[in-house]
Fold:
Amino acid sequence: MAEADPALAVADHDQRREAEALAALHRLRHAIDVDELLDQLLALVLGAATVFAAAAAVTATTPAIATATAALATATARATTTILGLLLRRGLGGDRLILRVVVVSHD
Structure:
């Protein structure tokens, strides 16, 4: 069954024919929707960039908030590295990843 998520990148107008050809490979455990991986990585990069931009804005405002923001930015960078590492280690196909990110703040 096709997913209802909107695609961020569409190659060309021959998508329907290509999707049918790739659907035949489903039982071979190949990645059918490579665009989904592209969408997830793009969302991850944009989310990390937003956090770092917000961290820079808050850092200029208050020193007390700067410490908390730095911890959040560090946790985000570690989570990004972990997710990308797991994706590269497992390859593009296979089961979905379930990650739990825990942020610990020290006062």
The helical segments are 15-23, 34-59, 63-90. Residues 33-107 form one domain.
